[in-house]
Amino acid sequence: MIDAHVHVWELRRRALPWLHAGHPLRRDFTLEDIADVPEVVLVQADADPGEVDDLLALARRTPAVVGVVGWFDLLDFPDRLPDDPRLVGVRSPPVDQHDGRALTAPAHLRGVRAAADAGLAVDLLLRPSALIGAARLADAVPDARLVLDHLGNPTTATAEWRAGMRALAECPNVVVKLSGTAHLATADLRALVDVALELFGSERLLFGSDWPVCTLAATRAEVIRRTTALLPPATHNDVFRGTAQRIYRPRETAPCPNTPAGRS
């Protein structure tokens, strides 16, 4: 298994602004806290380029870390990136939580193109109202590998969310991460997963536990068990390994940015 969405942090190294006093996650979380660590992709938790260096250093000494999705400002993308093939993706703070128009603003398009040219996948953290805008972004930058985090953050399979997912499914360079779902009722999650599987096929879906954020509602093991139970066995190799291997591949070996459009 590749868990494609794991966070780690040590508060003595950096204070995460979103972890306010009294927040239940306001403590250190390290890979040592996970029993039987599988292969993981570490995803940024702080809007600080210095965190990227820390995550890459951890990856270099931890064989289980197969990639790092780091924070870079897509509106001011750096000319030079860390020279480490373990840097496989970029996630910038949400640029638009409304109708998604900012996703296709010239400066953001330039940043996404630069990330794609550097061989990086681009994780998108958005709300359902911005998904149509994300589809326009995918059309505008067809060479970019775009990863929709947390299924687009729906609570239920609303008409707005379904419409956005249909638009994204038409873009072969978009994949969807089954992550950030621990707080959802099982019936609601089943409906969301069924729609995603129908629209994207298993080869365009990948799993992420969103640990330790998931622990606000469930253990990481519970998240894995529930997601596994909601997916047909024939899809498990794609969702729990194959898609992540293809999307978050080392930059040195990235031959082609587009993902397959086939369904299963």
Automatic annotation (TrEMBL):
Residues 2-249 form the Amidohydrolase-related domain. Belongs to the metallo-dependent hydrolases superfamily. PANTHER family: AMIDOHYDROLASE, AMIDOHYDROLASE-RELATED DOMAIN-CONTAINING PROTEIN. It comes from the Bacteria. This is Amidohydrolase family protein. It comes from Kribbella sp. HUAS MG21. Coiled coil: none annotated. One of its GO terms (molecular function) is hydrolase activity. It holds the Pfam family Amidohydro_2.
